[in-house]
Amino acid sequence: MTVSAAQQEQIDLAIAHLRAGGLVGLPTETVYGLAADADNPEAVRSIFALKGRPADHPVIVHIAGVAQLADWAQNIPDAAFKLAGAFWPGPLTLILQRQPHVPDAVTGGQDTVGIRAPSHPLAHALLKQFGGGIAAPSANRFGHVSPTTAQHVRDEFGDDLSLVLEGGPCDIGVESTIVGLTGEQPTLLRPGGVPREAIEALLGMPLIHHQKSDTAKVRVSGLLDSHYSPRTPLVTGAAKVVDDQAYLAFERGQRVVLVTCGGRDIPICGIDVLNLPADPQTYAQQIYDTLRQLDRKSYHTIFLELPPHTAPWLAVQDRLHRAAHTRLG
Ligand code: TXA
Ligand code: MG
Fold first, then answer.
1. Is 30 labeled as ligand-binding?
2. pTM above 0.90, yes or no
3. How far apart are the CA of 137 and the centre of ligand 2, in A?
């Protein structure tokens, strides 16, 4: 994987910044991250301060590849090597037992650590040259929509973040799949870029569903019920239901927009309509950008038709569920 001279300049700048304890907006194939040197607790704490995120929420450590896995985790089960071999670099995060040196600021004081090797060429090259681990949550204020372009990150933090690497729009557009490997059986903690079925096929067993009652224990902030939200009220539901509600709101004189999946005939004239693609991958690439764009248009409400409740849509369904202020079933 080669990087251009201009990209190498960006990487040099980012590495100098990280070594000095600074934060960097980092493109990955899923979403942009807010990166700090994972070995520097003070730098990691400044991520939380900038995001406005509770300090006991753990952040993922990004590494160049499986060769660095044992630097951060111990008692690594075979399943981890299997999954890393198949899906790294890529959108898969593994939760493993941490090495004792991993700062509490990274793990939220837990005895586990989340690790992933991103495939974005810029992130991958940076990680290889940096050598250490990079702690990075998504580069958005706590609870807000994740960023999928460098401009989103600049919109989010403005002058509070001096360096954002330009890596183009994210290929995947939703966060990594998180698999917990510290229990008796592998657990799906967050659906994401790697399909659940691909993981189950590789391991030859089903993943346990994350139970909501476990949330307090594992403190996965992506599992909070309100997350990934636009500022404009977002109402989700089946096509007929959101059509009806959008119409009622429109009749009351509100400025509303109806977001459909795949496009269809809208029986309401005069209402703003935006069509998202019926393909789950393309939909995932566009959804966060769409929510951010609609947020700038000062609508009273965004009405969104949910995509099908089928396996390929699992990650998108999960994010829409958490982003919604009102769910109409
Ligand atoms: O695709 C991604 O995963 C992106 C890019 C930047 O890599 N990162 C991301 O980070 O989504 P964040 O912090 O927004 O979400 C990571 C999730 C959080 O919900 C966090 O609580 C969970 O991973 N997590 C991290 N370490 C954990 C651990 N040791 N145990 C349980 N959950 C953990
Ligand atoms: Mg996040």
1. yes
2. yes
3. 6
